[in-house]
Amino acid sequence: MLRLRGLTAHYGGITALAGVDIEVAKGEIVALLGSNGAGKSTLLGCITASVPCEMAGAIRWQDAELLGKTTDDIIHAGVVLVPEGRQLFGGLTVEENLVMGAYLRPASSWGAELGHVYELFPVLRERRKQLAQTLSGGEQQMVALGRALMAKPSLMLLDEPSLGLSPKLVREMFRLILEINRSGVTILLVEQNARQALRISNRAYVLEKGLVSMSGIASVLVSDPQVVATYLGS
After folding, report:
1. Do residues 174 and 205 make contact, with C-beta atoms less than 8 angstroms apart?
2. Does domain 1-78+153-234 have CATH number 3.30.160.390?
3. What are the domain boundaries of the chain?
4. pTM for the predicted model, two decimal places
5. What residues have CB less than 8 Å from 172, skipping those under 6 apart?
6. Sign of CA dihedral 167, 135, 201, 6
7. Residue 50: pLDDT band by 50, 70, 90 thresholds?
8. What one-character-per-residue DSSP string does the chain give?
9. Phi, psi values for residue 29, rounded to 5°
10. pLDDT over 60 (residue 64)
11. Listing from the earlier edge strand, what are the strands of the sheet with 14-24?
């Protein structure tokens, strides 16, 4: 269980999060919707201690308090972030990028984890010696997901995984997210494609100006007039 209580985040005099309460139960996919600047990426960065801001409140994962911990501590606790824009090492090969995700794990486990990633993403096995910067956008996103899986996470935070992908690859990306979830990984999903995000999620929250403005069962929110008008279109 991930539980955020009264989470605030400030960049100098700018408030990014103004007291956010969110829960994600084990095994769920929970979507986090909101317009640009609503605080979605900041929230994921707060959970993983990867943003330079002043934070207060509580971030609890499996009864452990994460606020104040280092990013390495948080990864050790089983929480990983797949950042917006993939942020791969373009001059390294696919396999070198994947192994970077396992840097906190014993080297003896890397082979088994690579085998799992290649089973999930067969194209990456074919591309394993290819430089990451030469891959297509969809393949790069697969590397980003695979790199996160190399850490053997219990909770995966996904920040705009379908951004910049073709409609066909968007459908494939959401299929892969479902497959990762079914393998036992809980997921908190920030996604600009709100309709697809709600389709695969159990529940969802809407973030506006650093506050949760709406929450509920995803299959209900997808028909909510306000959600439809603001995020789903006609």
Report:
1. no
2. no
3. 1-78+153-234, 83-152
4. 0.93
5. 138
6. negative
7. very high
8. -EEEEEEEEEETTEEEEEEEEEEE-TT-EEEEE--TTSSHHHHHHHHTT-S-SEEEEEEEETTEE-TT--HHHHHHTTEEEE-TT----TTSBHHHHHHHTTTTS-GGGHHHHHHHHHHH-HHHHHTTTSBGGGS-HHHHHHHHHHHHHTT--SEEEEESTTTT--HHHHHHHHHHHHHHHHTT-EEEEE-S-HHHHHHH-SEEEEEETTEEEEEEEHHHHTT-HHHIIIII--
9. -110, 120
10. yes
11. 14-24, 2-11, 54-61, 64-65
Q: Scanning the structure block, which residue is given the tokens 């028909």?
A: 223
- The pLDDT tens digits for 89-140 are 999 999 999 999 998 888 888 888 999 999 999 999 999 999 999 999 999 9
Residue with tokens 């769920």, as numbered in its chain: 28
Strands 211-217 and 203-208: antiparallel
43 neighbors 210 (Cβ within 8 angstroms) = no
Q: Which two tokens stand for residue 157?
A: 């935070």
* pLDDT for res 164: 86
What are the angstrom distances between the C-alpha of 202 and each of 32, 52, 145?
11, 31, 21
Q: At what angle are helices 137-149 and 167-182 packed, to 10 degrees?
A: 10
* Residue 159 to residue 85: CA distance in whole angstroms: 8
Q: Is the pLDDT confidence value at 225 over 80?
A: yes
